[in-house]
Design goal:
This is Adenylate kinase. InterPro entries: Adenyl_kin_sub, Adenylat/UMP-CMP_kin, Adenylat_kinase_CS, Adenylate_kinase_lid-dom, P-loop_NTPase. Belongs to the adenylate kinase family. Monomer. Keywords: ATP-binding, Cytoplasm, Kinase, Metal-binding, Nucleotide biosynthesis, Nucleotide-binding, Transferase, Zinc. With 219 residues, the protein is of the alpha/beta class. It has one domain: P-loop containing nucleotide triphosphate hydrolases (Rossmann fold), CATH 3.40.50. The protein has eight helices and eight strands; from the N terminus they run βαβαααβαβαβββαβα. The chain has a five-stranded parallel sheet, sandwiched between helices. Strand 5 and strand 6 form a beta hairpin. Helix 1 packs across helix 8 and helix 2 crosses helix 4. The chain is globular, with a radius of gyration of 20 Å. 26% of the residues are buried.
Length: 219
């Protein structure tokens, strides 16, 4: 069986986290989320972790060279020999080119890039639908989990609700636009390399996974 070395892509709200869990459970690949490896590198005080911490502590973006170094350190570990799945990396073309070089050096080439595609308008609706009861903090979603009686909290009966700033439609829209700009060149890059598989993320979770499963079983 071919070792699966994957990159998982998708805009915020596309359901990457859910699908990542399912892929790991069935195909036993190591899930490498950049957030997790940054935290681990800083906690363990690795050379690259110390470097990253300097930028994060100042509220700055970590430069590509440091991010690439942290990812390469992680991919060099033995548990990735049986396959890995990168989530949150690469985020731009420079990182994609660096990933090519490091996977060639480690002899662990990427053999599929799964892009979970959902229409941005749908994502804005998904991500900006959350609201919270002002009195007791119960969380609702206008599409997936509305109160039983409109305008009344199921838990405490109060009628005042609010939205967190990062759930507001304009904030969500901006986040989606920024991520679309970053993702588009990457999609072209991996498409040219014949590694890209786009699945329809705007369907039931299990149906999305069936599409992913079909791709991975064929590799």
């Amino acid at each position: 069986m071919t070792t699966l070395n994957l990159v998982l892509m998708g805009l915020p709200g596309a359901g990457k986290g859910t699908q990542a869990q399912k892929i790991v459970a069935e195909f036993h690949t190591v899930h490498i989320s950049t957030g997790d490896i940054f935290r681990a590198a800083m906690k363990n005080g690795t050379k690259m972790g110390i470097e990253a911490k300097k930028f994060i502590d100042q509220g700055n973006l970590v430069p590509d060279s440091v991010t690439d170094g942290i990812v390469e350190d992680r991919l060099a570990e033995d548990d990735t020999n049986a396959g890995f799945m990168l989530d949150g990396y690469p985020r731009n073309l420079e990182q994609a080119n660096a990933l090519d070089k490091m996977t060639a050096k480690l002899n662990k080439p990427i053999n599929a890039v799964i892009n979970i595609h959902v229409d941005p308008e749908v994502l804005i609706e998904r991500l900006s639908g959350r609201f919270i009861c002002k009195n007791c903090g119960a969380t609702y979603h206008k599409l997936y989990n509305p109160p039983k009686v409109e305008g009344t909290c199921d838990v405490c009966g109060h009628h005042e609700f609010y939205q967190r700033d990062d759930d507001k439609p304009e904030t969500v829209k901006n986040r989606i636009e920024v991520n679309t700009k970053l993702n588009t060149p990457l999609i072209d890059f991996y498409n040219d390399k014949k590694l890209l598989y786009t699945v329809n993320g705007d369907q039931d979770i299990d149906d999305v996974y069936k599409e992913i499963q079909k791709v991975l079983r064929a590799i």
